[in-house]
Amino acid sequence: METAEPRRHLTSRRSFLLTGAAVGAGTLGAGRLLADAAPALASGGLTKGDEAILRFLAAAEILETDIWQQYNELAGIQDAEVPGGSGNPDYTDAVAVLDEDMAQYIHDNTDDEMSHAAFINAYLQAHGKEAVNLDRFRTLPSSAATGAQQIGRLTNLMQLTINTSFWTRYRSDSQNPDLGDVLPNAVPDLATGQHPAIPRSDADLAPPDHLKAIANTAGFHFAWIEQGGTSLYAGLAQRVTHAEVLRILLSIGGSEIMHFQTWQDKAGNAPPVTDPITGLTFPDLNADGELTQTNLIMPEPTPFLDRKFPIVSIIRPTETDGVAMGAARAFTNDGLFIGQSAEFFAVVGGLAQAADAARHGT
């Protein structure tokens, strides 16, 4: 009983990661049906490509909202603006080590993502399209820790494998993933194991260094989530047709950039610690030079488009080819979808493939 279920979940994840864009050919129709997608021919002023991009972004924002709501229930401000949960004082205090205003920041980021999802869906409906709805996939368990609602979730925050190369990427003046460069992880251990960013239960709150590691993991995960949106909106904006849709992507994308700037600053306050339970180690980031220096939160100038040009300070990466499927794969690699069904992967893969197939003027 304990091994059959994880194997089924791993099979779904592995299949999604291996097939990539090939998911769409056979499952796009089913995926669109499951996500209440609109007809193939766009109407109401949206091109088919613009509709596909907005549909994928609506799904991405719904997933982001699900992530942030879980964080807010435990460590954010509890009010009617972001309902649900009742707070967990021990976890809240541990996260507040990164910044005394963390509860407010978590609350506001959650509120922002809710607004993004609601706006994009409303815009689709205003143009005669069906809103994206992933409610049927809210099947993953909640944290059992005090403060969390016991409801079905879309995402799993208790088995994460976080790629922290975004940290070194923005501090490098010679490397850019758009040009094929692979940068090191700032916290290597986060990229090699499955670690919780929220307590699985109240038992996780007892060992002090274990709780510190959970809070540190959350801090880096906050920044990881938002750096993805920063690049995703910039990549897909290059594919839209209508000026108003471009305006939407640039405006929401700018909000994601503000989020990332905040979170990478707060993650830099994570104290060095080794988790006595998992062995996860957070190093002193200021001990290894500029590539991990914590106060270098402005993006360093770096090569862009071609190395023959002078280095320039930019958002990175902004490559547009396969950007939606890349985001879906990144979410999968992160462990956010551990436990999800094959149908869920078909939906997300189908929406991503449709967005990647969009071209300006189509």
What does this structure look like?
The structure is a single chain. This protein has 362 residues and is an all-alpha fold. It has one domain. The protein is built from ten helices and two strands, in the order H-H-H-H-H-H-H-H-E-E-H-H. A two-stranded antiparallel sheet has the order 1-2. The N terminus is likely disordered.
Short description:
By secondary structure, the chain is an all-alpha fold. The protein is built from ten helices and two strands, in the order ααααααααββαα.
Q: Based on DSSP secondary structure assignment, what is the total number of beta strands?
A: 2
The H-and-E topology, N to C, reads as HHHHHHHHEEHH
pLDDT < 50 stretches: 1-9, 20-43
Number of helices: 10
Shape: globular
What does the average pLDDT come to? 91
The SS-based structural class is mainly alpha
Report the portion of residues in β strands.
under 5%
**What does the oligomeric state look like here?**
single chain
Distance between the amino and carboxyl termini: 49 Å
User: Main beta sheet, described?
Assistant: 2 strands, antiparallel
- Helical content stands at 40-55%
